[in-house]
Odr-4
Amino acid sequence: RSQVMALYFEKSLETWSETALKESLELEKKGADIVVYFLCGSYLSDEIHVAHIAKCPLPDTLDAENYDDLSKLLDVEWVVDHAEKVLRMLPGGVTIVGITAVCSKKVFTDQRLVMFNSLKKTQSISAALSTLNLESFPSRMALIHIDLTTKKIQTVITDVVKRGPDSPSQIKFAQLKWVSLVTRVAVDIRQAIDVINRDDFYAEFTAAIKPWTTSLCSSNTVYIFDDEYKDDAESLVPDPKKMKNSNSVEVFMYMASASSAEPKEVAKIGEVFEVTFDLAVRATVPIKSTVADAKKAINHHIIRQLMARASLHYESMEVQEEGRRASPALHQFPRAATTVIPSGGSLLVYDFLFEGDTAEDAIKNFNHLLSLKTSTVEEIDELWERNLNEGEKEEPSLIIQHAHRLPEPDNSLSFCLCLFAIIAVIIAIVVVAVISTAS
């Protein structure tokens, strides 16, 4: 029998349900009979901690004369698409742990299957985005109904993978505290892959980094927390009062290389991917987490940062012409801009800016997708990373050769970072090798 999970909300969210009810009543007048919210938080043993709640945006078609089209409001793909956008913005260790629906009892009953399927797909995307499906990911999620008429709140915990009876739960409010896991990862991956789909950069990028991420998630990766080596079962912060920093733990990581570009190691080489990144990591976990929880959060953060940017880059790519260019193709991923979730204290959330984007664009995305009330550019930190200059774009080989010379961070940890993938077509080399073997 599944263990009952406790559901804790950050104390600052105590009045959230009242605000959501008022907002939903106003939207009901415009024809919205249900409003969905994403619960952003962390798993801690048999507990779910919620730090922030973001409203799923409503369809642009919603208006008072469009009442017959309200089924679009809880279209599974609509909800899941926005859930993925929210997930991209969250730090490792924090994910979507459930959804809240504000509506009448009848609508909730009618739409319950849609909500369950939305949760199930969201969990699946979370696992892929955070682990590349290399390891298990929490599958028990909260489903909350706030009755628009009676204002009563009903909460259940449902396992979206091992489907079984829902477990009734109850929201408890507490002064929750999260810890930021601070580290830096500089990596140069060179990986030969088969051609998967000439039009699917995202799939090929995933294949290119999978050996490295497999190594990252293995037991061979070493983590040192605040200058101490700790066993997985130990508490990350045994005594919060004795922390070196009030809400952060410094982490040193070491892992062996897992990339390969030797033609003989791949049966049908189509491309060589060179992925170079120097990433500032700010994963986040509840302060009562174990060392094992912290390790997972860091790994999830790194993988999610790479996959989120790759996904956004792929979505922005123009349709490629048939055939690959013989010369290396440079792909520069969008750079990070961050702000802090007020109720979480140390929860740093991310937006990703393309060349030409500004802090103003980040403000719009934070407010639209995370329901933040960010209003000034001073609240946005976009100094973490930079775009490549024209010289670097023209000579990508020089960037690869000198990847280890990327600038060191200063005391504020606002440093320059380059993140890109180099694709070099080596079909000609394969052909030569085959001919030599045949002769």
